[in-house]
Structures are given as structure tokens and as C-alpha cells.
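Deliverable D5.2: sample structural annotation.
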Amino acid sequence: MASDLVSQLSLKNGGKILLAVMDGVGDLPITEFGGLTPLEKAETPNMDRLAAGGALGQQCPVGRGITPGSGPGHLALFGYDPVKYLVGRGALAALGIGFQLKHGDLAARINFCTLGEDGVILDRRAGRISTDLCIELVNQLKEVSVPGVEVFVEPVKEHRACVVFRGAGLSEHIHDTDPGLTGEKPVPVTATDSDAVLAVSVVDEFINKSMAILKDKSPANGLLLRGFALHKDLPAMQDRYKLNPAAVALYPMYRGVASLAGMEQFQSDPSDLSGEVVAVNNALKAGKDFVFLHHKYTDSSGEDGDHERKVREIEKFDRVIPELLQCGFDVICITGDHSTPCPMKLHSWHPVPVLIHGGPQRTGWSSRFTEREAASGALGTFKGSELMPLLLAAAGRLAKFGA
């Protein structure tokens, strides 16, 4: 559905919507589970009750066969065409930690990694080092200077950091240096377009000087850069959908993509699911009528290939459903931004299950929230960017089209 039509039909008043994202929730059959997925294996009585009283389907974040990054996956959920509004992960990481990007700034995400003596990547996340160690390493990298540009290095969380280059004539048309796999060497800095010659030289010098600082560290003796991006603005959800949106997310990258869409951030204290539920409730008390809630660890367990932990993370999320219901939402949607199958240990192109509870739905088609039941659910299979119109319609926030 064309976004401009949805924008024209959007109504200012209507029901309150919760978009709860279990990051990377979609999976594949696991041999150790007798062919069940982690979502099928998990005991999820609360989500199953919502499924029985709601409607299921599955969404393709970008398109069939396309494996999405986290940025495109979330932009699609927020109703943006992720191809038209492509935003690099570097800008999202910087915005997520509150870094004030300026027009023309070039940002990239840093992954601290573990390299072997031959320069081959042994661990792309350096054992998921602590945030304290990340801060320590970043403080040393702040010493790196590159002639002609300003360089800002900031910690994000665990093995993640970001770097921002500020200067004239920079381009985002640079290949990631992260090959996405262990057993490979970091990819040399190369341009994807002729306008990036200057940017390549800047980034290459930054990497060489940083590697000299990190070479004797353990376990983080290297770094990988990905998601090169210049700062861009998006049309705000307030204007597109007449919503007053909020975001509750523990990880800066997801706060970054939410802030690009115009969502106000509500902090979680403590920094866990229980604190997030409190923050969700606070957002409603502050007059918000759309809340995005993010749960990360279903994704990280999938990336680690830990199917048992993924089951536990799904069950942990299920246990907070009753508290979320008490907040007073009219429509609740549970889905993911992409699939992260444990056997693959990577994002994948597989459709993501969707549950919508609230509003007039074709109920009674499903009894559990699983990939198998979502594939035959009442909502069918649709593009991720078409989820927002479904939520607005369920909440009574879309006017009729035509006479």
C-alpha cells in the first residue's frame, strides 16, 4: 500500500498500539527439538492466548528472498519502504547513543573482534566483551587522528562502538570491512563508487592506526567497520500517521532507528524486561499512543546458534505479556525485524511470524504463536512495510478510501 495514501487516510484519534519486537525471532526446525523451531518448543501460554483471540500471518521485511539488516527490518515495521529509506547502521548507532550528527558526517559501526596470528577472524564479536572493556578500548582509539577530518569514536554496548568522520567531501559508498564470517580476513577498505576515494583514504588511515593500538590486546585485538552512512532525515511518524510515538529499547542502535522515525525515547530502569515494561507504561501515561518495545536477546542467541537460550528468551518475553496487557493498549502486535535461525547463526530471508490482537480480526484460525501457524494464519503473507496500515486499521485510525 502506498505510504502517501496511508498518510492521507490516517486519523489523529483512535486506539493505542503496542509494537513488540522480539528481534530475530523467526527460526528453522531444530534437530535436537525433534524438528520444532525454538518458538514452537517454547512454552508461551500468554502469546498463545493472544494468538487464539487475534490473527496471525507472516511478513517479509524487504521482499521474498532478501535478507535484511536490523535497520531495514525495523524501518519496514515502522511503515517505511526500507529500499527507498535506506539508512546505514553507522548513523543509527551514532544516533542511538545521542551523538549529534551533522549534515555530511560519515558514521560507521565498529565491532571489536578477535584475530588470529595470520589475521583471520576468529570471533567477530571478541567474545561479546563487556561494555566496560569497550569503553576502555574506545578511550585509547580517541587518540587516533586523521589529517583533514575530525574523528569521533564512541562506545555503544559490549563489543559495539561507532566512529564518526566529520569533514568536507565524504561519501558513504564504502564496502564493509566485516566479511560477516569467521575464518576470513577483514575486507580491505574499498569504494563502491568513484565519489568515495577521499573517504576510503580517511577510513583506511583510521583502521591502520587503530589496529596498531589494538594488536596486543586480548580478546579484542582488531576491529571491523560496517554500515557506512551519511546522516539523513526521515519523515516523522507524527506527520505520516498522526501518531504520538515512543520507543523503549535497551540497545542504542534500535533507539537510533526509532529516533529517526520521530519516536521519543523512554529509558528502562532497570535495564531489563521488567524495567522496559515500566517504561512502556510511563510512555502511555505521558500521552503516547504508539509504543515500540524491543527485545534483543532472541536475536543474539540465534546468532550464537544457541537454540536452548533462544527458547528461554522467548519464554522470558512471554512472561511479561500480562503486565503489558494491563497497560491498556487497544492493539498489540508481536513480531520480529527479521529471522535469525540458530542453524545459520545469521540473519536470513525467511518470513517472520506476526501476531495482531485487538480490533476486529478474523479470529479462531490459530491456537499458538509459531512460524507454522503464522504461515497459515488469517493475515497471510505480506511485506513488512504493510504492517503499519494493518495496525492503524485495527486501532480505528484509518479513514475509508473513496465514496
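Annotation notes: The mean pLDDT is 95. The first strand starts at residue 17 and ends at 22.
The annotation will be released with the project's public dataset once the embargo ends.
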